[in-house]
Amino acid sequence: MGIEERKKRDKEFRRHQIMDAAKNIFAKKGFSGATIENIAEAADFSPATIYLYFKNKDELYASLSLKMLKIFVEKIEFIGNQENLSSQEKIKALPKALYQVYETDPLNVTHLLRYQSTEALRNLSPELASQIKDAAQKYINTMVRIFEKGVGEGVFQDCHPVAFADIVWSIFAGLVLWEDTKKGFDPRKDFLKPTLQLAYDIVSQGIKKC
Predict the structure, then answer these.
(1) Does the pLDDT of residue 116 top 80, yes or no?
(2) Max alpha carbon distance in the chain (Å)?
(3) CA distance 111 to 27
(4) Which domains does the chain have, with CATH numbers?
(5) d(CA 21, CA 122)
(6) Rounded to two decimals, what is the model's pTM?
């Protein structure tokens, strides 16, 4: 391994260390309560080192969100590309796929959904903001294609495809955040999986063409 390649690998490793520390700090203190100093201490780096990798706290938080967003895109595109599934079967497959991503890292998924509901994109570099917008557009486009295919097959009502995609994603985001809120009252309760399945069953029935 050459010197440049080793430097690149080490830099990427430190970046992951910082992001792992940041995820835990954001979980404990929330976005507003967390500071770069907290994150630096948790990662065993100096604050100056953190700023070598991230412009500010917003960029660090956004980078965690982007990482999770890309996983969602991969899952949704995988379903969209399954030629052996009908459009209706693809809609029914979405809640399981989305829940699987949530289950791998509930904390980071919740971070992502809360972040998307803010105006924090304005505080990011143009490059990072563009990456987040592009990733979000990809999962929207995939769901639009699933819906349009169903309309073409004559099984879905001919409604606005982007509105459909927005509804599908909003149901997931809303239920995740609502379940997270309910856990504050009783951490033993977790009805996300069956509630998500029920919601998508209702959507699947509602868009059927009579």
Answers:
(1) no
(2) 65
(3) 8
(4) 1-54 (1.10.10.60), 56-206 (1.10.357.10)
(5) 24
(6) 0.80
